[in-house]
Amino acid sequence: MEKLQAALARAREKRDGEGRPIRTQRGTMSQSRRMARAEALANRWDEIPMFTPSEKRMHEARIYSAEANTDAQYFDILRTKLLLEMRRNDWTRIAITSATAGCGKTTTACNLIAGFGRQLEDRGMLFDLDLRRPSVSKFFGAAPTASLADVFKGEVSYQEQAMRLHRNTAISMTTRVSTDPAQIILSSQTAEILDHVQADYQPDLMLFDMPPVLVSDETRGFLKLVDAVLIVASAESSTVAQVDEVEREVAQYSNVAGVVLNKCRFMDESYGYTY
User: Fold this and answer.
1) How far apart (Å, rounded) are the C-alpha atoms in residues 138 and 135?
2) Helix, strand, or coil (residue 115)
3) What are phi and psi of 97, to 5 degrees?
4) For domain 52-262, is the CATH number 3.30.70.640?
5) Where are the domains of the chain?
6) I want to staple 257 with a disulfide (CB 3.0 to 4.6 A). Which of 9, 39, 228, 262 is the partner?
7) Contacting residues for 82 by C-beta, under 8 A, at least 6 apart
8) What is the tens place of the pLDDT at every residue in 128-154?
9) Helical packing angle, 2-46 and 188-201, nearest 10°
10) What pTM was estimated for this model as a whole?
11) How far apart are CA 126 and CA 116, in angstroms?
12) Alpha-carbon gap, residue 251 to 228, rounded angstroms
């Protein structure tokens, strides 16, 4: 019996001794791979060139969210509410649209990406997909060497075309008006390229500034490629019927993240919170 117990003890010691190094080695290799992937991802982001818009240009375009201030507080609230919804629903791709032109969807999109740059642990991207009336480039006063449509046509890479506003935010701007934007936006190649960009850069947010729903067809076709849609309504021009119609259109293909009421000039002074 004693010999049997001694043999079992030696066997256990041998098994435990052989097992520990293997587990340690595997853990070390796994951690090493994670670190290498994180470094490669950071390097890919660093390869996107930076641009610095002037403070004057930003204020002229009503982009206030790059810094924490009183003018930015409502965009900051919107950013935080959107982030919470995204995390709760596991969303990454958010489209911003409106019923008609002039509601402020591009201003909202630019302020969201500018404010997102202050969330240092997250990465965000903005794509100007309003190919009929592109304006993100004008808002930021930037002129990339190529247009976003060139990326979708496979003529340049995303890295060559995009520009970083912050270390953690990139903007892909459209600099030329497209005569047939639906041909570009609805192509299978566009969907594939967006998938590649998402896989390569792993953004927490992909924001798409889209054309108004009721004046073109390309937004409807693109909705199936996003997780949710933020609808911007103008207090001075959008009607309840128009907003309802856009909500119905969106709900057929995606999720409604919410409705933003813009240009509301008659708020009580007690509403909100000042710094």
Assistant:
1) 5
2) helix
3) -145, -175
4) no
5) 1-46, 52-262
6) 228
7) 94, 112, 230, 257, 258
8) 999 999 999 999 999 898 999 999 999
9) 120
10) 0.84
11) 10
12) 9
